[in-house]
Amino acid sequence: MALASVNPATGQPLQTYAVHSRRALAAKVDAAHAAAQSWRALSPAARARHLRAFASALHRERASLAALVTAEMGKPLADSLAEIAKCADALRHYAAHGAAFLRPEIPAAAPKGVSVMPEPLGVVLAIMPWNYPLWQVIRAAAPALIAGNTLLLKHASNVTGCALALCAIATRAGLPAGVLDCVLAPASAIPGLIADARIAGVTLTGSTAAGRQVAGLAGAALKPFVGELGGSDPYLIFPDADLLSAAAACAAARLVNNGQSCIAAKRFIVHARVADEFIRHLAVAMASYRVGDPTAPENQLGPLARLDLRAELHSQVTRSVRRGAKLVMGGRLPPGPGAYYPPTLLADVRPGMPAVDEELFGPVAAVEIAKDEDALFTAANRSVYGLGAALFTRDVRRARTEFVPRLQAGMVFVNHPVRSHIAVPFGGTKASGLGRELGRPGVLAFTNPKTVWFA
Predict the structure, then answer these.
(1) What are phi and psi of 267, to 5 degrees?
(2) Quick one: pLDDT at residue 69?
(3) What's the pLDDT score for residue 1?
(4) Catalytic residue chosen out of the listed positions 262, 358, 359, 368
(5) Are 145 and 171 in contact (CB under 8 A)?
(6) CA 341, CA 360: separation in Å to the nearest integer?
(7) pLDDT of 324
(8) Is the pLDDT of residue 359 over 80?
(9) pLDDT tens, position by position, 437-449
(10) Please, is 152 exposed, middle or buried when counting C-beta atoms within 10 Å of its C-beta (0-12, 13-18, 19+)?
(11) Cα dihedral 192, 197, 198, 203 sign
(12) End-to-end CA distance of the chain, in Å?
């Protein structure tokens, strides 16, 4: 069996990779397990020096690495470079602050002599997706590594080149063998890896369906699991919002990463009083994005990552239109090679349509009209997902005291698109996941809070 990568802009094959044999997989796990024993023995300061060296190596090799990311998954070259810069920033951040995150704590009202000491669990299996082939890995790896764990990467098959390149750069930067490594394996190998006694924890970024399966396997093995899963982020537009500014922010949030982001804006829930004006502004803003060759600097949108993903997205659009959604712009398959899809805007969407009930993973915005404030929140919270949410209003006081508490989401942004930040906990609620990445919670996710009591 082989793993294959294909350039989504041209449809041309890039590379094939032989999967690891069962013996080779076992050797990879052995190496990660052995490395965990020496890696955890290093001080946080010593581990931090390795993370900083890794960050510097990413910066040095950014040109070739960005070209590989763009070739394998189709995002514009400028976005690939920005992704690498964010990875380097995250490594430096956890190098700088890891020791503080890992200091023993004295719980409030604890007896004299009691402290809680976080200690690493061991090997973390990271099952990662293709849409941010470097950032998703580093988002999990930087906190786990500074905590003293090692990380074994099972990446999406269509970005196998990115997985191998990232691990190779880590090795060239001086990370000890086995601290960050990848396995080339089909999805059928995951249950065996999770069941392996040498794997101490599992982190997954992917679909909700995959999250349920992997969480079940981790639970059966009594291993901690962190899942960053699907999202259908609502953006609420209140009647007092600055509509022009909101529309520009919403277009950017919907089209980020060619629309292929778990925290991309998915559903725009607009107060009826301003719906028509907002839709006009949003259409103009979305139409300003140029689609084309992702290596050309004038283009802001490239292709979707695979043809099958484009087919599924187009099916969701056409089924929504058949059920009564209004196609304002886009929604037609372009001629020629590649997995391109145009910026698409659907209006008058309602529950029962794929545009409302399902996650749209591509450059498709869906506008639902709400008759009043209560209807804004009802529509936003109706979803099974609860990753991020954003609201646009001039009334910041009410946003803080009334609006934010009413939204069922792991992250809420006011007058700004949802985004991840290297220093801030990231994750969702409901079907959008379990646990948190990044921040102190991310560092402690795969640690044992050991209670120590001196008499």
Answers:
(1) -125, 125
(2) 98
(3) 77
(4) 262
(5) no
(6) 12
(7) 98
(8) yes
(9) 999 999 999 999 9
(10) buried
(11) positive
(12) 59
**pTM of structure:** 0.97
* CA separation for the pair 250, 418 (Å, rounded): 10
**What Rg do the C-alpha atoms of the chain give, in angstroms?**
22
Do 32 and 152 touch, CB atoms closer than 8 A? yes
DSSP character at residue 196: S
The percentage of the chain sitting over the pLDDT mark of 70, rounded to a whole number, equals 100
What value does the mean pLDDT of the chain take? Answer: 97
- Tell me if 146 sits within 8 A of 51, measured CB to CB: yes
pLDDT in tens, 224-283: 999 999 999 999 999 999 999 999 999 999 999 999 999 999 999 999 999 999 999 999
Residues 6+ apart with CB under 8 A from 404: 391, 412, 414
CATH of domain 233-414: 3.40.309.10
Concerning whether 368 is annotated as a catalytic residue, the answer is: no
> Which position has the token pair 């409901």?
430
Q: Which residue, 269, 287, 304, is CA-closest to 403?
A: 269
- Angstrom distance (rounded) from CA 447 to CA 443: 8
Provide CATH code, domain 2-229+432-453.
3.40.605.10
Tokens of 422: 């290297």
210 vs 43: CA distance, rounded Å = 35
Q: Is 402 assigned a catalytic role?
A: no
pLDDT given for residue 48 in this prediction: 98
The per-residue pLDDT for range 81-98, each reduced to its tens digit, is 999 999 999 999 999 999
Q: What is the structure's pLDDT at 401?
A: 98
Grouping H, G, I as helix, E, B as strand and the rest as coil, residue 156 is coil
Q: Are the beta carbons of 316 and 358 closer than 8 angstroms?
A: yes
Measured CA to CA, the distance from residue 142 to residue 152 in angstroms comes to 13
From the list 286, 361, 324, the residue with the least C-alpha distance to 132 is 361
Tokens describing residue 417: 């698109």
Residue 3, sorted as left (phi over 0), alpha (psi -120 to 50) or beta, turns out to be beta
How far apart are the C-alpha atoms of 331 and 243, rounded to whole Å? 24
- DSSP for residue 338: S
**Please, which pLDDT band fits residue 190 given cuts at 50, 70 and 90?**
very high
Q: Which amino acid is at 276?
A: D
Where exactly are the structural domains of the chain? 2-229+432-453, 233-414
Catalytic: which of 72, 83, 228, 359?
A: 228
